[in-house]
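Researcher: Sequence recovery benchmark, item below. Answer with residues only.
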């Protein structure tokens, strides 16, 4: 991410401020939208039972809990300590499974996870830092491992005030599907599927990736 308060620090401070409200809002709205269910099911289908999966930008841990319910050994990484605290409060099974870290410099061993999931977190990362993120995703995945990453649509970065917390702002950095495919390829990742879905007031697109070129059949249950 870019340096200074407008970059990584702005994102961290904002999510520290809104962590409890964000968690309550997510619990109220739920996480069962059709695109989410479909993508989580597909990620689980591509992995072997008991595969280790990391959720990048896990927030209050809703998706980690869901992945665990699908038989994955899931844990989360997030920039915000307050968000990690929310995750462990709302699901005590996540205590010890939440790690603070940056997507551009993951605190994980190389070839240590079978799957990477990231939903509406990487949209805060400037495009200039995304090659490092793809590189880290490739590094931590085992050969043949699978990733599902979500990005914001749009043509240019924009800033929004959080609707339920006055004075708290988030910067969004759209990344096109074409840009994501090029960066993924440069990191040794193969695009196996792409899709787009509306998400409230902004468009979103999802990129599914595999490390290397292992046939998909070898990863299926």
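Model:
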């Amino acid at each position: 991410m870019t340096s200074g308060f407008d970059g990584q620090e702005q994102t961290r401070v904002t999510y520290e401020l809104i962590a409890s409200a964000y968690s309550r809002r997510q619990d109220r709205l739920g996480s069962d939208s059709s695109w989410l269910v479909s993508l989580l099911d597909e990620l689980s289908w591509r992995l072997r039972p008991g595969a280790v999966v990391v959720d990048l930008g896990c927030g209050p841990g809703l998706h980690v809990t869901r992945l665990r319910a699908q038989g994955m050994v899931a844990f989360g990484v997030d920039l915000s300590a307050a968000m990690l605290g929310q995750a462990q409060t709302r699901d005590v099974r996540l205590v010890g499974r939440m790690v603070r870290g940056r997507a551009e410099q993951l605190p994980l061993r190389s070839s240590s996870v079978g799957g990477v999931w990231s939903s509406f977190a990487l949209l805060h990362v400037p495009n200039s830092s995304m090659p490092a993120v793809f590189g880290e995703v490739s590094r931590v995945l085992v050969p043949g491992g699978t990733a599902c990453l979500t990005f914001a649509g749009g043509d240019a970065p924009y800033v929004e005030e959080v609707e339920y917390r006055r004075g708290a702002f988030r910067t969004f950095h759209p990344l096109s599907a074409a840009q994501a495919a090029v960066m993924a390829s440069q990191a040794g990742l193969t695009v196996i599927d792409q899709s787009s879905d509306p998400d409230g007031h902004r468009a979103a697109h999802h990129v599914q990736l595999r490390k290397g070129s292992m046939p998909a059949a070898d990863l299926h249950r």
